[in-house]
Amino acid sequence: MIVIRLNKRGMEKILRKHLWIFSDEVAEIIADSESGIANLFYGNNFVGRGLYNGRSKNVVKFLTSKDEEINEDFFRKRFSLALKRREGFSKFRREINSEGDLLPGLVVDRFGDLMVIQIRSVALEKIKDSILNALVDLYSPSTVYERSDFESLPEEGLSREKGLLYGKIPQPVVVEENGLKFLVDVVRGQKTGFFYDQRDSRKFAREFALGEIALDLFTYTGGFALNLARAGMRVDAIDLSEVDLEVGRQNAVMNGLEVNFLKGDAFNLKDLGSYDIIVADPPSLIKRKEEKQKAFDLLSRLTEEIFDHVKEKGRVCLCSCAYNIDRAMMEKVILNSSQKKNLIVRPLGWTGLPADHPTLLSMPETDYLKCFWFETLRGDL
């Protein structure tokens, strides 16, 4: 039995529909386990149930205000809601988007009849069988594969799990997106195998294309590169992973496109020439708010390198998938770097999460992806 009594701040957070409760928002914890499903109270009044982790600063992730069991039936109901709001979507999509689908700590990506799950909560890890049974019952997938082998653990005490949960070991699949095909290896690829969250931005890149030659930094398997090539541009695509670059080359062949995939460091472009368009989609540079200065320095280094290689009247896209790097920080980085390089910057727009990645207005943390598109001019007026 786990009982948590919230203090006034914690209760106010629940009323605002924010799903994370931190240790300083709790008045009392009575627990016979370090993690699990917790009953939440404010004073003597039952508030709801959530996912408890006594080792984490984020001590509770709120699940429900009802007095209901967190079991297979609970997950089946939440999955049904997620499925209903995705009617008419392609079957290549984010199926469960954690807090955005009112299931904090759980991500499910769908690749046709193959489903890949990530569990980001110790309490959820304990009831993984209920999650799996509900998925299999509702979706009838051929395979359910787990990719909770995080490089940086999202929660204290979480184990890095990877492997088959249902069906047979998945083979690489082909995802169709915006008229292009991408080979996805959910076993060996990054995260769940493919970054669905950049779908809208990749489409925008094709519309954004202007000029003859483009550069795609941190290309992974060529998402932005192939869209720029489809728009008729010559494209250099850079990544540190030769394995991912080889998949990118296969993707180019499969789509009848030419892309020059190069192994290299996106923070060191000295051997490259100048480009009409440069897209940079780096991995999450920081995980914690305390690392914001580190992020600022890394982004400054990256943008200065980019500005050394963008042509007059060139276009640039800079992305961030870290919530703690907000739009204001990105704009400040770009402004500072452009002034060092005697450039004028004109914003052209922002892109972010597609519709299968729902967010909560009550939780700004859920709206993590930001891509800033702008053009540059030489500063000698």
Order of helices and strands: EHEEEEEHEEEHHEEEEHEHEHEEHEHEE
What general form does the structure show? Answer: globular
Please write the CATH class name of the largest domain: Alpha Beta
- CATH architecture of the largest domain, by name, is 3-Layer(aba) Sandwich
Quick tags:
381 residues; Rossmann fold; Transcription Regulator spoIIAA; alpha/beta; 7-stranded mixed β-sheet; Archaeosine Trna-guanine Transglycosylase, Chain: A, domain 4; 33% strand; 6-stranded mixed β-sheet; globular
Could you walk me through the main structural features you see in this protein, from its secondary elements to its overall organization?
The protein is α/β, with parallel strands linked by helices. It has three domains: 2-64, PUA domain (Archaeosine Trna-guanine Transglycosylase, Chain: A, domain 4, Roll), CATH 2.30.130.10; 72-170, 2-Layer Sandwich (Transcription Regulator spoIIAA); 174-378, Vaccinia Virus protein VP39 (Rossmann fold, 3-Layer(aba) Sandwich), CATH 3.40.50.150. Helix content is 26%, strand content 33%. It has helices at 8-15, 72-85, 122-126, 128-139, 199-208, 223-230, 242-254, 292-307, 327-340, and strands at residues 2-6, 20-21, 26-31, 35-42, 45-53, 60-64, 92-97, 106-111, 114-119, 143-148, 161-166, 173-177, 180-184, 213-217, 234-239, 260-263, 275-280, 310-320, 343-351, 370-378. Strands 16-15-14-17-18-20-19 form a seven-stranded mixed beta sheet, sandwiched between helices. The protein has a six-stranded mixed beta sheet with strand order 2-6-5-4-1-3. Strand 14 (213-217), helix 6 (223-230) and strand 15 (234-239) form a beta-alpha-beta unit. It starts with a strand and ends with a strand.
